[in-house]
Amino acid sequence: MHHTLNRIRSASALSLNSLALLKDELEHMEVKKGTIIIREEKYEDAFYFLETGVARASILIKNKPVTIWFGFSGDVCLSFNSYVYQKPGYERIDILQDAVVYRIKSSRLHELYLQHADLANWGRKIAEQELIKTEERFISRQFKTASERYEALLSQYPELIKNIPLGIIASYLGVTQVTLSRIRAAIK
């Protein structure tokens, strides 16, 4: 629970009581590679903390998954449409490496927000942090080359990235596997 607790504590200060309430609601799960934890076009009443392993979010374009996000230890996994609006999301989140996650029902989290101001502020800070990450990914995709994005991914997650299939990385970068192979060859 080390990465999960670090993520919880880094978002915003919580009272010991609120931290204990949140910890008590977390369900420990061991999730196998290939498991879909968030399904597209379905309301998902779940908020996950990724303790170990790797996850990815993708959307279907012409019946092919296009990767839009990678999740690593300490990251949160959720459908924002489901979390914010209680509506079906557009993304699928699946596990790329066997993982340990902690799950809490979003509906329960919203109940806790109503009862504890520090938890409500914590939830707002988590959402703000995820918004900033989304904005950074958007800017990166708009203004950086695939090669620059690949190098950034390598520098941030050098060991983990080695275990992600090249087709998924290529999808994330918006290039073909052949182009990714050229990028990798040029970097070596």
Notes on the protein architecture:
This protein has 8 helices and 6 strands, in the order H-H-E-E-E-E-E-H-E-H-H-H-H-H. The chain has helices spanning 2-11, 16-25, 80-85, 106-115, 117-143, 146-156, 166-173, 177-187, and strands at residues 27-31, 36-38, 47-61, 64-71, 76-77, 92-104. It is globular and about 55 Å long. The mean pLDDT is 93.
Largest sheet: 6 strands, antiparallel
Distance between the termini: 36 Å
Secondary structure tally, helices: 8
Tell me the β content: 15-25%
Would you list the SSEs in sequence order as H and E?
HHEEEEEHEHHHHH
The total beta strand count reads: 6
Secondary structure category: alpha+beta
Mean pLDDT: 93
Task: Specify Rg, calculated over alpha carbons.
Answer: 17 Å
Helix content: 40-55%
Uncertain runs: none
General form: globular
Task: Please describe the structure with a list of short key phrases separated by commas or semicolons.
188 residues; alpha+beta; 8 helices; 6 strands; 24% strand; globular
